[in-house]
Amino acid sequence: MVNKCSAFGCRSGYKGAETDPTVWFHCFxxxxxxxxxxxxxxxxxxxxxxxxxxxxxxxxxxxxxYVDDHEDTNATRRKRKSSGTFxxxxxxxxxxxxxFENVPEYLSKTSGTPGSTASATPSSRRQKxxxxxxxxxxxxxxxxxxxxxTSSELLxxxxxxxxxxxxxxxHVADNRLVIYWLSVDNDVAASVIVxxxxxxxxxxxxxxxQFPC
Length: 213
Description:
The protein has about 210 residues and is α+β, with helices and mostly antiparallel strands. It is built from 4 helices and 9 strands; from the N terminus they run βαββαβααβββββ. It has helices at about 35-40, 75-80, 120-145, 150-160; strands at about 25, 55, 65-70, 90, 170-175, 175-180, 190-195, 200-205, 205-210. Mean pLDDT is about 75; it is low at about 110-120.
């Protein structure tokens, strides 16, 4: 059977292609699903599914993917090997093809170091969620810290607060924040006077009441 390379755009082993004796063919590692899936993902062929006859040639591997085989059982070849005239190269068990040239952009895959899978574990996810909650709490507490805020800053914060009860009025007078709520019936005559010392004088139907602040 003639080997034909299954890599995208490669003509190794095909009729009419120049035969290169230095090119070897490697079968897809169907016996190792995880490794085989890596080979399939590395090969930029859309919807490619390898069969028992599918191969990828050595042009798509780097020199680092190979290792010298020093376990040749043939005495004659061992002798020739020791003389330097015979070298047998074997593909490393975990090698994955990575050399693919002239690949269209829509088929190309961004190469890079695979990300760590540590963040995918339930324990690490819980730790990350807990850290996010702590950051959110710290941000909320920092936003609610009013110890060093001025009266104008407190007023601005109060006016922007969506959960504050309605009906109240608030103003800054003499660098003090004044918050009040007036509810008067239509048949009642009333008035409120704020003095310079922030003393309140309320008058209802000609009766006056003074409230020190």
